[in-house]
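Observation: inputs received (chain + adenosine-5'-diphosphate).
Thought: call the complex predictor directly.
Action: predict_structure
Action Input:
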Amino acid sequence: MLVIEAREISYTYHPGTSHAKKALDGITLTVERGEFLSLVGANGSGKSTLIQQLNGLLLPEAGELMVLGRSVADKGYREQLWQKVGLVFQFPEQQLFEGTVYDELAYGLKNMGLAKGEIDRRVQEALLGVGIEPAGVSGQSPFSLSGGMRRRVAVASILAMEPEILVLDEPTAGLDPEGSSQILETVKRLQREKGITVLLVSHCLNELILFSDRIAVLEKGRIKAQGKVREVLSGTLGEAVILPEYLNVLTDLREKGWPVHCGQLTLEEAAAE
Ligand code: ADP
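Observation:
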């Protein structure tokens, strides 16, 4: 079953003004339930604009977008989409605002009108899902935690909503290899065990290769290529980058519990190397 069907969708920021900027230009893309699709593309290629259409934050100006079988043109449906399509923004820990980790996770659940017992269950499960022991951390302020832990709390706050589609915009940016692995392995497990559909925006070749079923490459608001990871990467980057041995070594390392390494050093780290 298709959970996302985008047909020729377009989007322009500030239309009709001198600042008008066409960010999406006829995107056609389908995603099957339970699939792990990665979106790749240079800065400004339209990735963030595209994912914001999926949970109703932005509305396509042209074309048709069906999410979970219904058109987002329906305003009432669009307003419910935040509960079905969980969107983890870039650096999501910057949006934490509650006094405790528990309240942070419970915030969206209260807005969904859930009963206290169900909220407690979901908070517990979501924290365990990202590798956090709830007993020690629930009552703490998110701001007392390390950067990597805050990121996990932010991801857990979206997981607690039990979305059918999980969209993550560069969720490992700025994290060390351990922290990156923790997040991605969690997401992969949810895909495998709960059949959740995942869309990942990533610049990291290792992440793309190890976790995605399929990738779509965006360029200037259009889909430049899409398909199975190996096919698309060999088409766009050249065979040398994805020699079968490279894939095998990566897969082998991951199975042995090695963290995913993306070479995402901060400037300070790079200077210290
Ligand atoms: P990506 O996520 O791939 O970096 P974006 O979707 O953020 O790309 O941006 C696509 C294009 O739309 C870029 O040219 C960007 O400058 C423009 N854009 C993004 N957000 C806005 C905005 N709020 N106002 C005007 N232009 C924007």
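Thought: report the result.
Final Answer: Residues 40 and 217 are 5 Å apart (CA to CA). The first helix runs from residue 47 to 54.
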